[in-house]
Design brief:
heterodimer, A: 142 residues, alpha+beta, seven-stranded antiparallel beta sheet, 3 helices, globular, B: three-stranded antiparallel beta sheet, 5 helices, 60% helix
């Protein structure tokens, strides 16, 4: 049995309205610019079927190889709530669940992301280089 | 004698999260953070049997979060905090991942500017 864990982060967008932040997850052109991107990786494919039951596949190629981030949309309630499954099947066959909740705030909005069902052993199979890149991502973009 | 207790942190993460998935065991750990307690003392607030409390203690022990010593007829438990740090570090990895993603999203939206047309997604 795998025991699962929930991770939650909140981010404030001072000037972006909820609709823009919401659409950035589902519009392939916008999503292809940031979703699962890393400084040294290149997004080679960004396919999004933005409907409930639709699937997405975002492929990044970097020095560690090719990573297909894939999942299925479970709830689409623009611009409030988006729920999808998510995983890199090559690294772990089980998908976790991501819940995006957006509330208006001032001129912008606040987004809360909950990643449920993260597997404790998942990180073991992620190449060390990739872990470092992800760790540095926030700093790089700050 | 103690060699078997030295675990590789990655291997033990499953056990740690499994142990922490139960509210009774989390509460036991919180109470052990204050001081050592006997199994009877750990059982008391839950109105549970000694056997049931022993079972929880064994789970915590296997996860490396608790050690016990036998003193007369009492089993005295104490918390071992180090594995919690490994679990915390693991969780922070995911937090960093998603924080990085959301920062990247904000950067993209700022580049596009507020007047950029939004596309309906339904």
């Amino acid at each position: 049995m795998s025991d699962k864990v929930t991770v939650r982060v909140t981010h404030r967008f001072p000037t972006a309205k909820p609709e823009r932040v919401f659409d950035a997850w589902l519009d392939p052109v916008t999503a292809g610019k940031w979703l699962f991107a890393t400084p040294t990786g290149k997004i080679t494919r960004c396919a999004i079927d933005a409907k409930v039951g639709g699937k997405f596949s975002i492929v990044r190629v970097d020095e560690n190889g090719e990573f297909n981030h894939e999942g299925e949309y479970l709830e689409i309630d623009r611009p409030r709530r988006l729920v999808f499954t998510f995983g890199i099947v090559r690294l772990s066959p089980e998908l976790s669940r991501v819940i995006i909740e957006i509330v208006p705030m001032g001129q912008g909005c606040e987004l809360t992301l909950t990643n449920e069902g993260v597997l404790p052993d998942y990180a073991d199979r992620v190449p060390e280089g990739w872990r470092m890149i992800l760790g540095n991502l926030a700093k790089t973009l700050a | 004698m103690l060699n078997h207790m030295v675990q590789r942190p990655q291997k033990s993460l499953d056990g740690i999260f499994s142990a922490l998935s139960d509210p009774t065991r989390r509460s036991m750990l919180r109470r052990l953070a204050a001081r050592e307690r006997t199994i009877g003392e750990l059982a008391a607030p839950f109105r549970m049997s000694f056997a049931a409390a022993s079972k929880h203690v064994r789970v915590l022990e296997r996860a490396g979060l608790l050690r016990r010593r036998v003193q007369g007829r009492s089993h005295i438990c104490r918390i071992v905090p180090e594995p919690l740090a490994a679990a915390d570090e693991w969780l922070r990895y995911y937090e960093r991942f998603w924080r990085g993603q959301l920062s990247a999203l904000e950067a993209v939206l700022e580049t596009e500017g507020p007047d950029h047309a939004t596309k309906g997604s339904r």
